[in-house]
Design goal:
single chain; about 100 residues; mainly alpha; binds zinc ion
Length: about 100
């Protein structure tokens, strides 16, 4: 769907496909810079979370550390599955 949006940079009306990364036809600046910045912030935060995760095997890890990380990941998955099972069980049983 195409609509129009006033460019925050030059103040001209330009076509906008509701995509935050769309650019102004007059000055080529981003039409929704706040949303673009939010998107960048979220992906940066996700990358940082992944980098700090205990379960990620790093190149400098030795064999024991790799085994610990794999075991921890499996234990975490099993624990999550059990918790999920109990939640479904309690949520689906009346009373
Ligand atoms: Zn513009």
């Amino acid at each position: 769907m195409t609509s129009e949006k006033k460019c925050p940079q030059c103040g001209q009306w330009t076509k906008w496909n509701k995509n935050p990364e769309d650019r102004c036809a007059h000055c080529d600046s981003v039409l929704d810079p706040r949303r673009v910045q939010e998107k960048i912030d979220v992906s940066t935060r996700e990358a940082e979370d992944r980098a700090h995760s205990f379960f990620i095997i790093r190149p400098q890890d030795g064999l024991p550390m790799k085994a610990i990380r794999r075991t921890a990941f499996v234990a975490h998955a099993v624990y999550a599955a059990i918790v999920w099972l109990f939640l479904v069980l309690f949520a689906s049983t009346p009373g």
